Amino acid sequence: MFTKWIYRYEQTLTLVAFIAIVAGILIRIFLKDIAVMGDALLIFATAIAMLPIGLRAIQALRFKMFSIELLISIAVIGALFIGEFIEAAVVTFLFLFGSYLEKKTLERTRRSIQSLTELSPEEALIKQADGSRTLVSIEEVSKGDRIILTAGSRVPVDGHIIEGEGTFNEASITGESVPLTKRQQDTLYSSTILESGYVEMIADKVGEDTAFAKIIDLIEEAQETKSNTERFLDRFAKWYTPAVIVLATIVGLITWNLHLAITFLVIACPGALIIGAPVSSVAGIGNGAKHGVLIKGSDIMETLAHIDVMVFDKTGTLTKGQPELLRVQTYNNPPHDLLGLIGTLEQTSEHHLAHAITSYAEQHHVLTDYVVESTTPIKGKGIAGQVDHQQLVVGNRALMQDHHIDISQAEQDALYEEQTGHTLVFAAINGKLAAVLSIKDEVREDAKQAIDLMKQHGVERTIMLTGDNAHTARVIAEQLDIDEVEAGLLPEDKTAYVKQLQNQGYHVAMAGDGINDAPAIATADIGLAMGNGGTDISMETADIVLMADRLKQYAHAFLLAKATHLNIKQNIWIAMLTVFALLIGVLLGGVNLAIGMFIHEASVLVVIFNAMRLIKFKIKGEDLNETTQTTIRNPDMPYLYQEN
């Protein structure tokens, strides 16, 4: 009870100590006849200030830890013993006041993270079955509820639009402030804002399952992790503090100067050294969150700063992951409902290319009502199945070869399409080639700028790993100035390639967005997932998640990690040089106990303020400005077969 009271009123105790110190010093200067009263006030101020300091020192000793508070306690007791009442009182006050300032400035570094939690909506307007509207708390919203959104409303849960249209600000999720136009069936995320329009949505994910709730959880967990540097400094401080006590004792025994020994204790306090790395890491993680980059810990930040090889998946990472079916070339007199059959089978797949085919078939109303009798997805190759008693095989060249399907008659057409950067999907019915589907996926607008920027700042090699064909992969690699391409890979091939790079001594980062990328992402030193369009499994596996699906965020994360690592080094040097300078000052007789404490606390604040610069970090010298975005849809193309 007493302990809680002391900690609760620590600021009040600091103020009381300050008033007592000022009064004591004034009495000693101007009322020398009652100077003993001034000494009494100084001793009183020391005792008051020592309450929280001494309690923390005792608590640390219970866990067999030598804390900074222990050094201060020993020094203050020594100062009182030799009659240095002013120095004893000033040291305790400066330590408490410095701790108060540290706490306040540290709160500013966490504010960008804490402000995110304030974006969580508290209420939702539910539309009942009879058309009536009910305002309920967010905890009462269930999956399947129909929710009404008007201009200015904050989306309460994750879901999809079933009626209406509007522009949404998704900065709380993606870090991008450019409004995004959304219509029926488009996905909405909790905490985003409907800036204009009217929308009715269906709740798909509620409570802790929403994307926003997961973001908050990830950020809170990230702040608790420690980098290798932080763990080293913790171990260093564990031995450094008792070493300081031993050295101070030796100094006192050699010189028989107790004042010098206790001054040595104060100026050798490792406060700035201990706080330097954690405060930089917290500021860096907060900056990332503000820009839509979720970095899952200080250790991740430190590793990212040393990456020298960046590996990219193609589809959905370097490209937009919104492929469009451009052309269907048919062979061997296929059935008239060919695309309907293919689309029906592809509806069972979650692959990007499958979505392109089914979207096209839906738009042109050719999807059949046939029942899919069997289906077998083949990782990295495609899908096989039976639809309306017909055996379909749909996928890449390797899948055709596995099923002994002759595609030689399509090679010339296929080569032409691949050389233009298109991805090909071969379709066979009952063992014969029926069609080649040409699909295009646009390269992300910011991809080349982001890759160039990372190359300028220490990335030695950029590599594309893809399951797509070599011709298409090389076309995209040339556009983006990627150094190396490995095409036609299965998921296990990508993982093996990443391991090979690591065995060569490289620090590897792998960026991807699909289920197929999850093993390679998990294997790499740093795994990065595209959050908005990515799968849950790749986001769970990844160390870093880009919520806006923009590679400029990757460049931001990489340069932020470099800046954070440099900032930590600066803080360590500031702390060490301060202690070194104070030691010289003490040995030369120019630094007393109070001045030493003042400079020590000032160095801690300098370290914190230096770290706070990371909160405002942004990429300089690169024009990576956002452009207006809308939801991208397949163009209305004529439904045309070209018979070979």
Automatic annotation (TrEMBL):
CDD domains named in the record: P-type_ATPase_HM (cd02079)
- Tell me, in one coarse class, where this protein mainly resides: membrane
Residue ranges annotated as coiled coil are none
What domain of life does the UniProt record list for this protein's source?
Bacteria
Could you tell me where this protein is found in the cell?
Cell membrane
Q: What is this protein called?
A: Cd(2+)-exporting ATPase
- Does the keyword field hold Transmembrane? yes
Tell me its EC number(s), please.
7.2.2.21
